[in-house]
Write a structure and sequence with these properties.
Elements (H helix, E strand, L loop, with lengths): L2 H9 L16 H10 L9 H6 L3 H4 L2 H15 L3 H4 L2 H7 L10 H12 L3 H15 L7 H11 L6
Helix pairs in contact: 1-5, 1-9, 5-8, 9-10
Length: about 160
């Protein structure tokens, strides 16, 4: 099975988060992201559109991240030089917590982690492994830590 097929299979049953649950706040950036993604599927977005809204990876609600993440992964596969920060933003969502995180940050990260099932964690790890093997990897240590956590080799 190809990596694209692995991702698509892992996320095939991820439910749409709802029109009012794309982001968790109403700041101008989140409103813009909500307008872009509201009422769409993850297959409705081109790589160019996703690059224009790659900050959405960090601003999505946990449910929206689970639903739309396959778009970012599938569209960027093998396009590492074109997508620059996108795989790095994805890795940042799964890096283990630091000892100095405040309670709000901890809850935010836990909610995002818990939105995914083990099969999805494995698909994300496989995506990040392919990215880590490229010549354009950004934040290699964080990417490796995210992979280890997604594979269950490092605690949250």
């Amino acid at each position: 099975m190809s990596l694209q097929e692995t991702i698509e299979t892992a996320f095939k049953n991820a439910p749409y988060p709802g029109d009012k649950n794309i982001t968790t706040c109403q700041c101008p950036e989140c409103e813009k992201i909500g307008a872009r993604f509201r009422g769409t599927t993850w297959r409705d977005h081109t790589l160019d559109q996703l690059q224009q809204h790659q900050t959405a990876i960090s601003l999505f609600s946990p449910e929206a991240l689970r639903f739309f993440l396959p778009a970012f992964m599938v569209r960027s596969l093998g396009r590492w030089w074109d997508v620059t920060l996108m795989p790095f933003f994805i890795a940042q969502q799964f890096v283990p917590r630091t000892a100095v995180e405040d309670a709000v940050t901890k809850r935010h990260r836990e909610a995002r982690w818990n939105a995914f099932i083990p099969e999805q964690h494995r698909a994300i790890a496989a995506y990040l492994k392919e990215y880590a093997a490229s010549d354009s990897v950004l934040g290699k240590n964080d990417v490796q830590r995210a992979i280890a956590r997604l594979e269950g080799r490092e605690t949250p």
